[in-house]
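User: Can you predict the 3D structure for this chain?
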Amino acid sequence: MNLSIIGTGKIVYEVLPIIASTEGIHIHSIWAREHSLAKAEALAMEFNIPIATTDYASVLADPQVDVVYIALINSVHYAFALQALQAGKHVILEKPACLCHQELQNLASEARQRGLMLFEAVTLLHLPAFHLLRSEILPQLGTLRHVECNYSQRSSRLDAYLSGTILPAFDPKAGGGALMDINIYNLHFALALLGEPQSVRYYCHRGYNGVDLSGTVVLEYAEQLALCTGAKDTDAPSFGLLQGDNGWLRIDGPVSTMSSITLCLHGQQPQQIPLPSVSHRLTPEFATIANIFHCQDYITMNRLLDHSLAVMQTVDMIR
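Assistant: Here is the predicted structure, written as structure tokens:
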């Protein structure tokens, strides 16, 4: 598939080498705002991208572009994606897909009516370790009772925020904050295991402009409870912890990377589970998307999209 990268932010610098080395993906162009054109041109030169442009209409009108990958600030995901779908382009949205359920529902309806694919780029859902956990390891725990996730990482932009400079990561109008950035991974993880909750509560620490700097989401189910903590104002060891009536399971590090898993069944000693290796946490995500696209696997695409819609519905409940 021929791909156009939309944006030049931090995630683009991380993901470009992965996309460029993914079989079945050719990067055809990169779009940037006027003030970021020099960045786009430098990236185009480094990764042999034929076109660097500030003209989004030309990207959407280009018959050689199959898919656009939108990696812009959260608040503009919806508008850019809608234009792309209406132009007949398939879309990959960097997480979070949108700011609310209604926005993503509108995009999903547009995509499905036009026979187009719409993806949210959520790393953990495509990791081989996550598939192993869900299909083979989790059933050993018996009835799952408690899920806890903590992804805490002091933001590199926090000092600027504390000094009065509000960048998008800490701007509620831009979709910034802990919930929509770092904690969204935990929500994806919890809902992928437990489904949509019956009720939710959010306890958070807000900054001077109302943005949530850190917080814990409590997801309540009929027989389970999930706690999802995300912090951009403090550091802490990140982890995932699953407790069942036949044992427990601990993920060391953020659930979005699944770097190691320790399993302890009732009456046994803890054991570290061997996990499939990956060259980079983003590699399985884009390899999966490329395979779904080339196989025209709308069943899998729609299943993933329904999951993203459920997460956005939960975000609405939280708010």
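The two ends are 37 Å apart (CA to CA). The chain has ten helices and 14 strands.
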